[in-house]
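Model: You mentioned two targets. I'll fold them one after the other.
Researcher: Yes, keep them separate.
Model: Target one:
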Amino acid sequence: MATPPGSRTPHLFSRGSWPEVRRVGDILRTETVGGLLLLAAAVLALAWANSPWSEGYRALSDAEVGPAALHLDLSLAAWAADGLLAIFFFVAGLELKREFVAGDLRQPRRAILPVAAALGGMTVPALIYVAFNAGAGGDALTGWAIPTATDIAFALAVLGVINTHLPAAMRTFLLTLAVVDDLLAIVIIAIFYTSSLHFLPLLGALVPLAIFGLLVQRRVRSWWVLLPLAAVTWALVHASGVHATVAGVALAFTVPVLRRTPGPGPGLAEHFEHRFRPLSAGVAVPVFAFFAAGVSVAGAGGLGASLTDSVALGVIVGLVVGKAVGVFGATWLVQRFTRARLASGLAWWDVLGLALLAGMGFTVSLLIGELAFGAGTERDDHTKIGVLLGSLLAAVLAAVILRARNRHYQRICTIEERDTDADGVPDVYEDQTTRG
């Protein structure tokens, strides 16, 4: 059917604006380094937990620090899960708010794809997990949300290792999908993994949160003012029974994105992002991975015992098959029921490679596993093995496809974007009228 005069066919994975592409490139470099640190921390934890010195690892994880009078005498592993991951979710909240307020995704036609892909990539894995565990009995079904997460740091580390020339729009898609995924995960944690709720501390948390929001709306940046308010908000959310990482997202959503007066330079949300992203990617997430990934294969009943547990099988198949089917299927449905088509030069193999890469759950999957079954339980150990194997298998399959497409990526990405004028902006980004 002919396209009506004056209309344009929207393209999936079309180029964004040059400032957005450059900003995303900076984010991806930070997250790639963080992913490599995350990988190193996980390998170290696994090696230590399965060595003759494994008792030392457990003693370190269980060591309690913090003021007992405030009920914050938590183990180091709990501080990593509840405290450090709040920084991770704070950065994710800033990124998501900025994308939808000032980024390319403020345009509905650009936002629909990553949002739909994130929803598909969470729904299908959850259904697969439930199918594996419907008759398992016990608490098996409580882990339904484990395979729904995507670990952006790990996924980008894989991209860095295989050295693809992935088009900027597809990298942006992967980043945005993971950020939306993280937000949906924190909603799931808050609703489904809150065992007991205490309303008084939760209502009390609104006071420092409101003061924090009022100050940042007035563009206050002083850490010695904002950090205590953030800490009090976190402590009260923790005391309420809601997982404390929710406080990170709540704080992020109060930060303004746009500058008060138009002009060059980042807004406050982007300023905080630059400040806290290295701390999140380089410290918070790797430290959490170190304490969360140290499962003893022998202690879990052996690798064979884990692979016969429907929980581990549901996690593995959910991450590898469910994520791929969910993300790929949602992308296909978007183009099927809209006028959108893949951008020129791209193929559905590219989408499949990204969909498989989204199956690297790791950080949030490990967190949900602990919340579902309790840290240190046998099923939590089986969950960890499932997450590790599922993420590894998804990474290998994605690497095979993306490696095969490497020359194609190089042709459509580097050749088109190498022509740059004296203004430093690639020519392909200067003609905004030709973008789908």
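Model: Target two:
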Amino acid sequence: MSDARPPSAAEPVAAETDLPEQLRVRADKRERLLADGAEAYPVDISRTHALREVRQKWGHLAAGEETDDEVTVAGRVVFIRNTGKLCFGTLQDGFDAEHPAERLQVMLSLAEVGQESLDAWKSLVDLGDHVAVTGRVISSRRGELSVMARSWQMASKALRPMPVLHKELSEETRVRQRYVDLAVRDTARELLQTRAAITRSVRETLHAERFLEIETPVLQAIHGGAAARPFRTHLNAFDVPMTLRIALELYLKRAMVGGADRVYEIGRIFRNEGVDSTHAPEFTMLEAYQAWGDQTSIAELTKKIILDAADVVGRRQIETADGVIDLDGEWRWLGVYPGLSERVGVEITPDTTAEELRRIADDHDVEVDPAWGAEKLVVELFGELVEPDLVQPTFVHDYPPSAQPLARPHRTDDRLIEAWDLIIGGTERAGGFSELIDPVIQRQRLTEQSLAAAAGDPEAMQLDEDFLAALEFGAPPMGGVGVGIDRLVMLFTGVGIRETILFPLLKPQQ
């Protein structure tokens, strides 16, 4: 009956003599159930009440009070205490979008269930099993709401032992065996519910603003919409190479050309790049496009999306190691060049040379690639020296053109583009543009990207003739935004990206 460490995920459950002892014991119990004519995984569990429903209806019972009301409850066994004539167990049921997992005590007495059933409970039930219990609702002498069993039934025999509930799981175990994490840790369940609430809030905000949710292809012949290295695959039916999408942008804009006024998609994005506390190769992105808007209007929409999500979570002030983020405070606008100039104490403009920027990088111990031009150096220096200190919400804007090839040239300074990144807590949470709709300039930008790709840049976009053809039919002026859903969840929960993604991609175990 002992529940020691959980076996490795690499250890198979099979009829083998070298199985760990706990797995052999549990497999034997499964066989004994079947030999006795019982089912280890029956389909006909006639549950009458969820555990929370029992608490809601009979939670008022005083200590020692009993009823004749009979229920059938079911759940995972998370605690067992077996004595001579009276056994105790705690069941835990599932959770959903509105309710946390609930627990309820069950009691099995010799007088109520009989010797055979009591002995079977003691010998066959382990922590982690799902069982169904039928009996009267009572309150124990200690005031614990309980079901006094008349009968019980195995609902699902667990062949692997669960971790001890009060023992902290390592992060590695949590992310590799998320199903275990969810079963034993309240915080894991709450995080999943929080993510679902935030995602639902984003959809509700956009729906209230009359945005149309659409779906775009995951498999794409041409990768574009961002500077990122794609995952490559092959479509056997057409015998053509394909990539997994690195952004949602280009197909959403095609819908705008077709007359959709406001569109969005929340979807998975795939980038074959590094993995760290804020980056994952597979993640969830929101992209939204608004006709007759620009970077300012889309910034207001982004602010509303985040504030609405904050209200769902229940806090607009977020405590961090770097101070309290106040979402009710000013959402500052900071130019890239003025912000970097202030940080390094030297005026930097779009005319500052790459040589001068490399000297500044050396002075501040920032590693840079000697091949980078001035625009790339400015963006990298800002990211290293300024961005980490932007704790309060800040729209970093007026980027050089190479930073965002799909953004419109600035209306007053053609050395800049109308684009911003929203930095909160030192991390980029969203990016917005006045979208480039001039097909001639867009062709020039994508041609430059394709030449960079041909020269060996793995993150450069390809020339997408179909997208350019769509723009040539005419797209309305528009603002667009991309919001990292995982990073939005990170903002409100304070955990890393591996925790916010339910089943993250991980390095294979040896």
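Researcher: Noted. Anything on target two?
Model: The radius of gyration is 29 Å.
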